[in-house]
Amino acid sequence: MSAGDDNHHNDDHDHDHQHANSRPLSDPELRVKALESVLVDKGLIDPAAMDALIENYETRVGPHNGAQVVAHAWSDQQYRQRLLEDGTKAIAELGFSGMEGEDMVVVENSATVHNVLVCTLCSCYPWPTLGLPPVWYKSAPYRSRVISEPRKVLKEFGLKIGDDVEVRVWDSTAELRYMVLPERPPGTDGMSEEQLAALVTRDAMIGVSLIPAPKI
Question: Can you tell me the distance from the alpha carbon of 213 to that of 127, in angstroms, rounded to the nearest whole number?
Fold first, then answer.
């Protein structure tokens, strides 16, 4: 593959998506949905507050796990190598595994390659590391357009990729989830893993943004 090419990968896995968006809900999930509906109907919980709680999990609490993985990879080159060789096993070293994250592949951004994630048929997503998928990730326009015109979609997110950088689009499947290892930003030498993790965003681990250098 030459620099500047836009490539779509799914590792030849069949999109047999038996997961949260296409499989029947499990009994516990059905109970939660029913309970939530009753509580809203009775006025015991505010739907707006529930939405805010979910948004907080999507953008802050959930991606905190992935941010720890990224920060550790930036700080420990041996761990970084293990992460790129066997994402599932390396992520489990930090205690993050489970449903929707049983089989993980980590792809690394660099000066010459930019990776971005999608699930074209629904919204397969690595919940143990990135939390809940954002609404836009599940939307039909994103799922279709990021495959056919990734540079244009990334530009709409505020991310302009140079023509000399290859864009690789990774298509998740029921069997396999992906996570982006973003480039470590300049100006972070000497920072602790906790400080580094605070810089890492969910969108950078999906590949629709970069991590800027910390403000001095």
Answer: 27
Query: H helices within 76-213, ranges in order?
Result: 77-85, 87-93, 127-130, 135-138, 140-148, 150-156, 193-199, 202-206
More confident site: 70 or 29: 70
Q: Token pair 């480039």 is at which residue?
A: 183
CA dihedral 91, 12, 183, 53 (to 10 degrees): -60
Domain coordinates in residue numbering, the chain = 6-19+46-206
Q: pTM, whole model, 2 decimals?
A: 0.76
So which residues are the catalytic ones?
119, 122-124
> Domain 6-19+46-206: what homologous superfamily?
Nitrile hydratase alpha /Thiocyanate hydrolase gamma (3.90.330.10)
Query: Taking the mean position of all CA atoms in its chain, how far away is CA 99?
Result: 15
Which residues on neighbouring strands pair with residue 177, listed in sequence order?
104
pLDDT in tens, 85-140: 999 999 999 988 755 546 899 999 999 999 999 999 877 888 788 888 888 999 99
**Contacts of the segment 139-145: beta carbons below 8 A, 24+ positions apart:** 142/118, 143/118, 143/119, 144/120
